[in-house]
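Here is a typical sample entry:
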Amino acid sequence: MKIDAKMIGSLLLGWFVPGLGHVYLKKFWKGGIFFVCIMSMAALGLFMGGKIYSFQTENPLTILAFFSDLGSGLLFILSKIFSFGLGNLKNTTFEFGTAYIAGAGLLNYLVALDAFDISSGKKK
């Protein structure tokens, strides 16, 4: 399989904004549904006081949390610029919120890979 610019573009756009890789491939419904679902999951996590992790080397689990949060693409970048998603340990929903944010990032990786597969011709 030869990797071309369309395949890389759909993968990177899909990572940067959930569903954008599918929109780029003219799969508007799928892209819209993925965007709404993943961003809703991340927004719920933020409203519950969840934390978006930065890269830290003290604990191997925080490295894994960083990579799962990085999957949210633009949300991760904006959280570092505008200082939101710092987490509130006093909230009883802190752990659930953090898990929602991490889950949204991991789902976005899968959605971006799905866009890559569609652009490569492996899927329709």
Summary: The longest helix spans residues 94-120. The chain has six helices and no strands. The mean pLDDT is 95. The chain has one domain: 5-120.
